[in-house]
Design goal:
By secondary structure, the chain is α+β, with helices and mostly antiparallel strands. 36% of the residues lie in helices and 22% in strands. Keywords: Lyase, tRNA processing.
Length: 282
Amino acid sequence: MIPLYVTNGSAYVWNSEDWYTLRVKYRICGALIGSLPSFPRQNDFQGLPMSLMTEEATLLVNEGICELISITDLNMKPSGDLKQQIDDCENRIILEQTDALKKRKIQQLSQKIDIIVAGKKQKLLSKGISDVDLDKNILLQEEINKIPNIAPGHLLVHLPTQHHLKCNEKKILSTDVLDPSLRTEEGKIKYAVFNDLWKKGYYLTSGSKFGSDFLVYQGDPVKFHATYMVKCTSVATKFRPANLVAFGRLSVAVNKLAILAYFNNTGAIEYQTLQWHDSVVR
């Protein structure tokens, strides 16, 4: 199963293949919150990790797709052995990159050795020396010896999106640790609506930026705009007319349908659409 790592009540996906599987196969969008290594000084495009809504994580666990995991020793002060492992790993990376760069330099020098020899002869001729026999192999070795050691600051930096060392203790958690809790009335209806719409084949994301609980898409949000903005409520909830009008007008402004979702008297999920007609919401 795909691991979801829980920190402070939120579930995260750190592995790029897991992210791809959840997105393509299971229609789970989440929210990318990490900085892109190639473009760190912007926030228009984000990278891993992916943060999941409580509803998303709970559904994945209930469907047997994922499991919630807590790494108990991840936030503990590293031991001396762990620090030594990290130092050894960094030193190995430096040596590997240095060797690879040196091999590349030697290959380039070997390809240009005839040009180097011709240049040396031309330089000697300009000084009036013409009877010098230059050995390619000796000259090549001299050029290789001139290759400087590469400073660590000039090498590539590895930015792992997963813990690169073995974590000893992993604890399987229940969905009760997720925040906000789904045990409340509000949490129950939100999860029920998310589960219902997901099983009907829709893509869902958080609708907080549009004053709703979920945005509902006919296809992947990369290719489609949201069709519906869903607000979860209760039959007993009393709305002020101004709030209903505001919700309806906002949906029109962003070209979406405003939907109220709730449990009806039989306990089934029911959806009510707010539509404009002759400047009146009904």
